[in-house]
Amino acid sequence: DQAKAETGSRFSFTEVEAGVDADHHVAEGYDADVLLRWGDPLFVDAPEFDPNAQTAEKQRRQFGYNNDYVGYIPLPDAEDPSSHGLLVVNHEYTNEHLMFPGIVTIVDGKPQVAEATQDRIDIEMAAHGGTIVEIRKVEGKWQVVKDSPYNRRITADTEMEITGPAAGHHRLRTVADETGTKVLGTINNCAGGVTPWGTYMMAEENFHGYFLGELPEGHTEAENYKRYGVPDGTYDWGKFYDRFDVSKEPNEPNRFGWMVEVDPFDPNSVPRKRTALGRFKHEGAESIVAKDGRVVFYLGDDERFDYVYKFVTAGAFAEGDREANMNLLDEGTLYVARFDEDGSVTWMKLVHGEGPLTAENGFESQADILIETRRAADLLGATKMDRPEDIEPNGTNGRVYVMLTNNTRRKEDQVDAANPRAENAFGHIIEIAEAEGDFAAESGTWEVLLQCGDPSVAEVGATFSTSTTENGWFGMPDNCAVDSDGRLWVSTDGNSPKATGRTDGLWAVDTEGEARATSKLFYRVPVGAEMCGPLVLDDMETMFVAVQHPADGGDDWPEFGRPSYYEDLSTRWPDFRDDMPTRPSVVVITRQGGGKIAV
Ligand code: FEO
Ligand code: CA
Ligand code: CA
Ligand code: CA
């Protein structure tokens, strides 16, 4: 009844106890089954995973590492769209110390990783990218369909096409590709999205880490690369592949940091880097069809003091006409957000020739604005945010939820209404209401839904509702999902024994009525892991979550003994076998005996 709906939580389940241990935990009455683990064969002829005999060739036929975004696209001929479809999964990055046996030694009490070899780098590159795999529910349990013609691995070597306004631009041309339209691979694919026309969006996030070397003296890209932190040298790929060494191939970094669109129904389709959506550390691209049929994509740039964006297609979505929608992402308007003190938000256009986005400021064309999206947004005076992560539109209430994970570098004199805490260790969530409920609007209003952290510590300034239990609060919101009842689910990155006395997990967060800002713990990950996904299928009977890098965390987990390296891991989830490393995995959650989740 109405009164109850306005006062009570919309989620019904018995909360999990927050804590830290070697296993994962889901609310009572639910099953959490591992569906896909790093190394699982994706094809009938793919080899079984053997951690001591891994090769790049095998890895290209197996599930990749560090599953992050999880999307689902029903098969057109499925009897029940929520029981048979394609699972699309990003493989964000690799943790070599957890992947390769024997490469860590302790020198003077400190762990040291062995120098990279080409074989190891090739495996890392093959473990990046994405997976498309057919799955189906049989008698209540989900299975992987290994003989599906749709199954596919995308890696850091897959050939891709660059499309849209920056395609072919001279700043995108390299020795290997003088057209500026062909690029190999996608990297650091964090969150993502599935478009209304059933394609898979992969966000290229921290691409700077894959480049090393020094730009030639006085190079014209120096200022551009500085704004993006390129090169960073986290990975050693550039020691074996010239394109990841900016001293040898100075334009290659301009070919990363884009949104990639993949047609999952053609396993030979060439993925497309859609330059119209800008170049930055893309977190995700969740979308919704606006009232007039244009499609709106919400985009976060995950860096301290970077921005919230949205892209509105020029053309309208044509329901049922897949071909007509296939190039919608090459034309449209990119906007960046300014959050004002009076509670209004203005979406400012990034269009060549408008305002300061002119040749005098070094933007010769729209291509320059897209290649240096951050500098263009700086000039427009966009609001510098506390690390924008996943952003999710909610079609049932017309609102948009923005995860801001943390920013410990914000100083007292840098706080503003939309980023109200200095040294923001635990992050917050902003709720936007677009003008007149129109997602394509150029303005709207906003408020802080929730400041995260431990509500029992006054200085933290957390704003969970008083009905939130000691298990229910969390820090560092990262990925999120809105289910078909319009309820918000938030997964986290950064909770640990030291930071919050708990692992990461998945929390159900009320947004409506008296229960607004009430949070409850539904699932938590093993020690050292991070929580990704999440996704609730339309019938609300299946949820997918992704567990990244269990056992990671090194010295951060003293209560679990030695640092978590392969020879002495703090957990061997999910196999719990001495001869198996810990493995990132996609987990499927269903209600025992069937039925809708948390209803
Ligand atoms: Fe890969 Fe922004 O988290
Ligand atoms: Ca993320
Ligand atoms: Ca999401
Ligand atoms: Ca993350």
TrEMBL record:
InterPro entries: PhoX, TAT_signal. This is Putative phosphatase.
